[in-house]
Design brief:
The protein is α/β, with parallel strands linked by helices. It has helices spanning 2-30, 46-60, 109-117, 137-140, 147-156, 172-187, 229-232, 242-249, 302-316, 332-348, 350-360, 387-418, 429-461, 481-509, 527-551, 559-588, 597-602, 607-624, 628-643, and strands spanning 36-45, 75-83, 92-98, 121-125, 160-170, 195-199, 217-221, 265-267, 270-272, 285-289, 513-515, 518-520.
């Protein structure tokens, strides 16, 4: 036993070091190996942002007006990337990026990494009600979701050319970009925003005020397989759409073709082909892109990043002091790879932490089977070769897979309706509320399946075999009340430790763990109370999942196979649903279930908990013999990820949700 403890300690140290090393490498890619200064500004009030603008004005001699409302309570969080070539004597263009809904600033990391390494100053920020930024910021920034303060801050920076400011976003972020273009260009005395790339959130172009884009470089990127744009803009056939042709004719009335050429820059004199890296020489121009992207891939694909690079090169040229870097030369996948490796190491830390905490911390020793002298007798487990045991289990998982594949869009839609945004559940209803409802319904169906299988075995399959004791699948729930409380406490301690590691690497390396829209990142402390309330929706699912793990083991089946059965049962239904919807989308240009666009864009984040949670459940059950600890760990860990950066549409964060 001492050897196991020592081995666990060594593993924990190695995994912790791996997290640090992978985070370091991720950070090095982010700052282009020291060529870009990266600075995070957390929880600054609007008054503090205004003060920075005033100080920048004094230092640079600029006169950037502060047109947003100062506040000593409403706070914003943002990140500034300053290439070292950008100085007060060699000013660079600046680009302000706003993320999409239900996300935060670092979701746009592939975009800002690629632009900053090419010499552009970049500001990425948490929009109103997201990440660490208050929802009140929207009203105080003239309904620009916080874009207005960020653009004016960018203009004021001593190393930025205030006449060469670009904005872009993704999805909801394009709405903020359109709002700030209208606001700054039409209603302030500040220099006009020079370039706007509406990147896969195409409806935002209709929210621009008349004349807002006059004299601008205006780009429109509409994903060919974008779940939203295929519905709203018929993006599968973008080049031949009447609205797309009209968009070009608005600047070049003589345009008479029946198809809009992509990557062609149109001004009043016609279309022009720019060599990438070449700056458009005129004042007003439009260009359209149709990358083969889905909606989430607008921020997580090489084709999407190539559009950003091509557009801002065309708008501003190669920033002074920098060399041209082709749009195909991208390093953000390397950063993401290191982030993924760091995240896997971070997850793996749970296993030795459980062993060490139940071995050395007196309060939790009663949870450790070894310290209690209990050894599991695997010979008492059922045999997979016994069809009376294996077939009902596999049939149940097949039923659960079918249930998810068929009912996922309806359940998430119902969830958004039956669990609306409120003070108690303040996230956008189509995110945590929708999938929380799905998890509750899946839990109820799973419980019903377990009951049916138990009754089937007891009264049909084994009714004539008096020597066979049919085990109640819910027997593993039985645990001493004090041990349940201890499991709750230990689960909170473990998750707190894991997130403390994230806060540490964010503070040191300015990175976190993310894959596309899956995020394990820092959060505002008051969001802990929100996460605890949302745990009420997700705990039943993770609890019953731990129960399934405990009941899916066989004496003649390797543990990894048993785990794989549960993992497949968890995720295959979502995968089948995705395969059906995206096969339709790619072949016909529309989702099979057109009302499920938001479900399709959000479901990808659930593959992680569906695969990781059973592994955590298995090792916790193996070590403690109860299913409660893993249920608590999984609930806190994944719920915090889901709601920690979530969108607050109209409610403020409160401790108790009243």
């Amino acid at each position: 036993m001492k050897g196991n403890k020592k081995k666990s300690l060594i593993w924990l140290i190695c995994l912790f070091c791996a997290v640090l090393v992978f985070s370091l490498f991720s950070s090095l890619v982010q700052d282009s190996f020291g060529k870009v200064n990266v600075t995070n500004y957390n929880n600054l009030t609007l008054s503090e942002v205004a003060y920075k603008i005033d100080e920048n004005n004094k230092e640079s001699g600029k006169d950037i007006a502060i047109t947003f409302t100062k506040s000593d309570t409403a706070r914003m969080t943002y990140k500034v990337l300053q290439p070292k070539t950008a100085t007060s004597t060699n000013k660079a263009p600046a680009i302000v990026i706003m993320h999409g809904g239900l996300s935060n600033k670092d979701t746009t990391s592939p975009v800002f990494v690629e632009l900053a390494r090419r010499g552009f100053v970049v500001i990425a920020f948490d929009a109103m009600g997201h990440g660490k930024t208050d929802k009140e910021v929207d009203a105080l920034s003239n309904k620009t979701m916080g874009m207005e303060p960020m653009v004016e801050l960018a203009m004021s920076l001593p190393y930025v050319d205030e006449n060469n400011i670009g904005v872009t976003g993704h999805s909801w972020g394009d709405e903020g970009s359109a709002a700030v273009v209208s606001r700054i260009n039409l209603h302030t005395t500040n220099p006009k925003i020079r370039a706007f790339l509406c990147a896969q959130g195409s409806l935002a172009i209709y929210e621009l005020e008349k004349g807002a884009t006059d004299g601008m470089v205006f780009g429109l990127s509409v994903g060919k397989y974008d779940e939203m744009d295929t519905t709203y803009m018929n993006s599968f056939y973008l080049s031949t759409q009447k609205w797309a042709i009209s968009w070009i004719k608005a600047i070049y009335p003589e345009f008479s073709a029946t198809e809009v050429p992509m990557y062609t820059w149109f001004d009043k004199d016609g279309g022009h082909t720019l060599t990438e890296g070449q700056k458009y020489a005129g004042s007003e121009v439009r260009v359209m892109y149709n990358p083969e992207n889905t909606h989430p891939a607008a921020l997580f694909s090489t084709s999407a990043e190539a559009v950003n690079i091509n557009f801002f090169y065309g708008a501003f040229g190669v920033p002074s002091g920098n060399s041209y870097i082709a749009s195909g030369n991208q390093v953000w996948p390397i950063m993401v790879t290191f982030s993924l490796l760091g995240m896997l190491s971070w997850f793996a830390m749970i296993i030795p932490i459980v062993t060490l905490s139940t071995s050395y911390l007196p309060a939790f020793k009663s949870l450790n089977l070894e310290d209690r002298g209990i050894t599991e007798d695997r010979s008492k487990l059922p045999s997979f070769k016994n069809l009376k045991e294996s077939i009902p289990l596999l049939a149940m998982f097949a039923g659960l897979v079918t249930f998810t594949a068929v009912m996922l869009p309806k359940l998430t839609s119902d969830g958004a309706k039956y669990i609306p945004t409120s003070n108690f559940f303040p996230n956008a209803p189509h995110q945590a509320n929708a999938f929380g409802y799905w998890s509750l319904m899946t839990t109820l169906v799973t419980v019903a399946c377990l009951v049916v299988i138990y009754l089937l075995k007891k009264y049909v399959l084994y009714r004539k075999q008096k020597d066979v004791v049919v085990t109640n699948p819910f027997a593993v729930i039985k645990t001493k009340p004090l041990d349940v409380i201890k499991s709750l406490g230990l689960g909170l301690i473990i998750v707190t430790f894991l997130y403390a590691v994230i806060f540490m690497i964010d503070g040191i390396f300015k990175v976190d763990f993310r894959m596309a829209t899956l995020e394990f990142t820092t959060f505002r402390m008051d969001k802990i109370f929100v996460a605890l309330r949302y745990s009420l929706l997700f705990f039943p699912f993770y609890f019953i999942n731990s129960l399934l793990v405990a009941n899916s083991r066989f004496k003649d089946l390797p543990n990894w196979v048993s785990l794989l059965i549960v993992i497949i049962g968890n995720s295959l239904g979502i995968a089948i649903f995705a395969a059906i919807e995206y096969t339709s989308l790619i072949t016909t240009g529309t989702l099979r279930t057109t009302s499920a666009a938001s479900t399709c864009t959000l479901m990808w984040t659930f593959f992680c908990p569906m695969t990781i949670a059973p592994i955590i459940s298995y090792y916790c059950y193996k070590k403690t013999g109860n299913i409660w600890l893993a249920a608590f760990i999984n609930t806190f860990l994944f719920t915090m990820s889901l709601v920690g950066t979530g969108q607050y549409m109209s409610q403020s964060i409160t401790m108790f949700g009243f």
